[in-house]
C-alpha cells in the first residue's frame, strides 16, 4: 500500500462533504466519544471491536438481527428487529467499521461483515460514523474487489452523506440516507 493512499482517500471523501477525522489507534476512543456525544442512542453492529465502545457514555443498542454474532463482552443488550422507524428516530447515530475504502473515489465499502452490520443500519440513521484503518485503503475499484474477504457478499458503497439537488441545483443532504457521515481515519 502506498503511504499516500489513506491521505488521498481522506481528501476525496472530504470532497463529498464527509467529515474527516484523523487519529491514531490510541486516540480513537476519544474521537468516537466526541463525535457521538450529541446522540441520544448509538446503534452498533455485531462484531464491532470492544475497544471502540469502551467508555462511551451514550446509550448503546446492539443490532441483534445480524448473523455475524455478538459484539464483544457485554457492550450492549441485543435488540432483535430494529426497524427503519427505530433507526430513523431523532438523535440516533450508528457506528461501524468497513470492509475496504477506495482512495481514488473516496468511497467506503461495507459488505455486512463483522462490525459493519446490515444495510439498514447504515442507510437509515441520520448520522453514520465509520472507522477506516490505513490498511483497509486500496487504490481503486479493481483493488477493492480483490481486497474483499468474500466478493460474493452484497456491497454498500458510500461516497459522502446522502445528497441530491433540486431543479435549481440546490444541494439537499439526507434525502435517501444519512445527512451526516463522519469518517475516522486511523493511522
UniProtKB/TrEMBL annotation:
InterPro entries in UniProt: FTHF_cligase-like_sf, LUD_dom, NagB/RpiA_transferase-like
SUPFAM superfamilies referenced in this protein's UniProt entry, alphabetically: NagB/RpiA/CoA transferase-like
Origin superkingdom: Bacteria
Domain LUD: 95-185
Gene3D superfamilies: NagB/RpiA/CoA transferase-like
Annotated protein name in UniProt: LUD domain-containing protein
